[in-house]
Structure formats: structure tokens, C-alpha cells
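Data availability (excerpt). The following record was deposited with the supplementary files.
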Amino acid sequence: MKKKTLVLALGLASLVATAHAADMDLLPQKPLQYLDPLPDSLTWHGITFYATLDVGYAYQTNGRPTGAVVSTLEYSPFTTTRNFTGQSISTIAANGLQQSNIGIKIDTPIGRDWNIVGRLETGFDPLTGQLSDGCSSFVQNAGVSYAAQTSNADSGRCGQALNGVAFGGISNPLFGTLTVGRQQSFQLDEIAIYDPMNLSYAFSLLGYSGTDGGSGSTEAARWDNSAKYVYQYGPVHAGVMYSDGGQNTGMFGNAYGFNAGGNYKGFSLDGVYTKEHGAVNLQSAVNDTVGSTALAANISDNTAWSIMAKYTFDFGGHTVSPMYTKAAKAPEAPGDKLTLFAGYTHIDQANPNTPILSGTTAGSYVLAVSGTLPDNNAFTTDKILQIYWAGAKYEMASGLSFTGAYYHVNQNSYVADSAACVAGGASKTDCAGAYDQVAFLVDYIVTKHLDVYTGVTWAQVTNGLASGFPGTPGAKFGTAGTGTSIDTATWMTGFRLKI
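Predicted structure:
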């Protein structure tokens, strides 16, 4: 039924595009353009309603069937679920370019250059209509054998009414912007700008995994109970952020972060420093007992810093002349652009200074409690992740763009729960390992509200980062082997509708 629904939706989109093409008007002083029936925005007194729907179809060479909660693919093997079993998957998929969402943005003047600002947003699964709930997918797969596992993924979106952001504050061009509430970390803010794939779930490590955005812990990519201040002076900006953390959030302790950056002509540069205490890292669902509703988790103190840059070559506009007489002055159409991206993040995870013995994480999910859970000794020696990325995006004035990207991760060999990696290779998850991903994406902006896309990606984990997958040492339910790497390739095509 889902496949028929997608085919019908794609067919309707094609009919709409054809109808638009038939209605193209040669306007006296405008270039060719598709007529768009939707308004530019739905705004009333500075309050703007917005929504995004991202659906499509995907094929994956090595994956897991979609589930009742996470109904889309696990796009990358950089995951705690260790879920890939060599099974090819062909399925309706969602959120290839971004999380489908619905929200309200506030930017209302109150006088003397002061504005009230804010945003309320929640993500949802467009294939089921449910709010995004990664934590529930772990409950659904608790203790289930690899052969029966379905898609599941750690996330800070755990069924909360507002699982995206929920903040408000004040802004002034002279004094800056101060906001409070549930907000994205500076790290997540900045990698969204400097990732060539713009945090695409299907084609970007930085988008699919919250490890970088959460400075080591996916659930800490968005900070509850936080305050953020950002100041802009000409081309330079700086900011500071603080969170109390607490129960029902992604971290039990406090956190703080700093951001500074600027731009000059086509060049932009940003740096971020983050410190988080008591961050939650969910363990694979196969580690839980069957029927368990509590989540097994490691607790860590995270320290991260990053540097990111991009440069845009603007090739300038060109005169739109065929539509004009000699008496009419032809306007200049926008030109093509080429943007180069690069970034580096260094993450250090250590045992928490203040051990967490019990509690609830994001979405009010209870953490499993036993002699070793929550695990406060998962980083007896520090775990170090080094994340590198680079890419390029070529945007044509016609609305067509081409993006290529490469992502790489190095993990050190560290001691977990006082047991060192002895045999090396993929014998344990705390052995040294690596991740590599290459991706290519073609996107076409049909109108301001609709784009269609297709892309391919290949990713591989080796040694410690591959350990625990079926076919490698440490895998459960009789699926252990001697393999030292796991890889998967994914192709996806779809459309994104934005209002």
C-alpha cells in the first residue's frame, strides 16, 4: 500500500510540474519561470508557519527492513545498532535530505529595534504520521535477534511533543540575540552550514549520525534548559551557550559551548568548543532483555572542538536578452556558484565526573538499572574520535545543483569497562577503527516550495567501528565471524515539499 501511495504521489507531482510548464508565461520584463500557486510564506504579524515533507524511494545493498517506529532506512553503518546483515533492501523511504517537520517561527518587532524571536518545531515520520521517536525503536527491538531486527537508531527526538527546538527570546541589531529553551548546540548549528550535504540523512554522516552535532553523544545535539547568546558585528560573530541538563534530557549534567567566526567576501570560517557532563549514549538494542522498556546506556563527559570553512566562487549573472526588444533593458539573471567545504572535529569522551545511577533520558524513557547499568565506566581511558569532511557543491542558475562529499572518522584504541582491546582488529568495539563515506547528489529546485533529488552513497566501517556487526567478532545470536569491515551502498530518489 505504501508503494502505491508513493507512486501516486510521484505521479501527481509530475502532473503538477507538467501543468506548470504549460502555463509558463513570457513576461515583458522577467525571465522564464514556473508559476507557483503557493504563497512565499504563511506569515501573520511576524509569526510564520512552516512545514517540510521529504519522501522517496531507496535501495540499499546491506541493511535492515524498516520498522513500525523508525519506518525509514538506517542510512549509515556508523551506528551503535550493529544492524546490517547483508540483506538488500528496496523500500519507500523518508527524510533523505532532511527531517520532515512542522513548526512556527517568530520574529515580531516590539519597538526601538527590539524583536521577539523564537521557534517551535517537531519532527515526524511522513510514512506513519507519528512523531519522531528513535528511543522507542530501541524498545521495539529489545533483545530481538539480528535476523528479526528492524530499523532503529539513537536520537534526541524521542516522541516529545516538540522534539526539534522550542525556544524564545529577544533580538536587537546593536545588542545581539538572547534565547532560552530547547536549542540546537553550536556544533549542530555550524555543521549544518559547513556540511556540503547540509546534514542530509541519506547522504551525509554528519546528518544521519548525531555524534558530531552532539559532541560525541547523539542525544546531546539539542540542549534542553539552555540559554544562548549570539552577537554580530559586521562580518564577525561570536556566541556563548549554557545548559543545566537534567532528567528527561540528553544529558544529566550541565554543558557550555562557545562559537566564533566570520566571513570575508566568499570565504567563511567558524570554530566551536563544547563541554558536556553526563551525556547519554544508548547501547545496541540487542544488549537489552526481550520485552524491556528501559534503555541500556553509557554515560560520558564530552569535550569537543572543531574548525570549519567554506569558499564560494560566484560566477556572476548574465543578461537575459532573447525575451526583450532593443528598447527594453534586459535584467541580469543570477549566475552559477561553486562552493568548497571542509571541516574537522575532535571529540574526547571520558567517564563522568559525577556517575549517574538511575534516571530518565529524552522523551522520559527510563534508563536500565543493574550492577553495570547505567555504565559509568565505558571510557576507562578516553575515547577519541576525529571527524574530517570535504566536498563541493555546484549550483546552477536554473535550479539544478550537483554535490559531492567525503567523510572520514578515526577512532583510537581505548579501554572500556577496565578491559583493553588486546586482540586488535574488530575483536572489540573499543579497538581502533575507521569510517569512510563518499556521496554524490543531484537536486533540482522546481519552485521555491518543491525540489526533486537523486543520489548515491557508499560507506564502510573497519576494525573497532565494525566490531559487533554480524560476521565480525562480538556479534550475538550465533552470528559472530572473523570479518573486519562492513560496508553498504545506498541509492535514493525523492522529492521535498516546503511551505
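Summary of structural features: The CA atoms of residues 246 and 252 lie 4 Å apart.
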